[in-house]
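Hey, I'm writing a tutorial for new members on how sequence and structure tokens pair up, and I'd like a real worked example in the thread rather than a made-up one. If someone can provide the structure for the chain below, I'll link this post from the tutorial.
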Amino acid sequence: MMNRIKILDTYVDNLTMAETVTVVDQFIKEKKPLHLMGVNADKINMLRKDPQLKDIVNGCDVINADGASVVWASKVLGKPLKERVAGIDLMYHLMELAEKRGYQVYFLGAKQEVVTETVDIVKKMHPALQIVGYRNGYFKKDEWSEIAEMLRESRAQIVFVGITSPLKEYLVEYLQNQDLNCVFMGVGGSFDVVSGNIPRAPKWVQNIGMEWLFRVLQEPGRLWKRYFFGNIEFITSVYREKFRKSK
């Protein structure tokens, strides 16, 4: 059993990047399905308002800290995590693993031109990677059964899902209930970054835990309220929990 700690309304596995890749590799070798989950402050805030999402997240076999804020919270609450396991970095590592092991990969999500550009770039990065399919993330709930059959026919072993939360989690939960034996990893807007449509923060910005601010500056109209008020809500919740436990 992995060292799992509780942060507010979710559990987080105390895994490094390398340890996570090893765990995923083991799931694939044993032909066991996996919903590989990453949580940040925004998603943890969502769990308080969405019981279904909370059940899905906490039911995952691997839950990573995909956010510097989660690592910070673990330290404040006296249960320090080893490191942040950023989703996009984990995606790159899993593509390397898949190329090395011969695992079959599928890309699902984003606009059609974005996912096509992503696949083109990934093919240049990993020429031997077995990409068994890709398609955009613009489909309705009544098409989910078609998506399930498409993935079944592809025989994909790793499926990267570039769809926003919480729809992404609902979709993966549905697909797993269709007996699809895959590793599903939600990657949010990573296809936009891989394809070059949205630049990623410089390494030094990532290292100081301010990648979220870089994203806000890129799309202030869409993101500033979510991050500003969301971060205040998260920080307040963490200190309230710390105070409750100290009493």
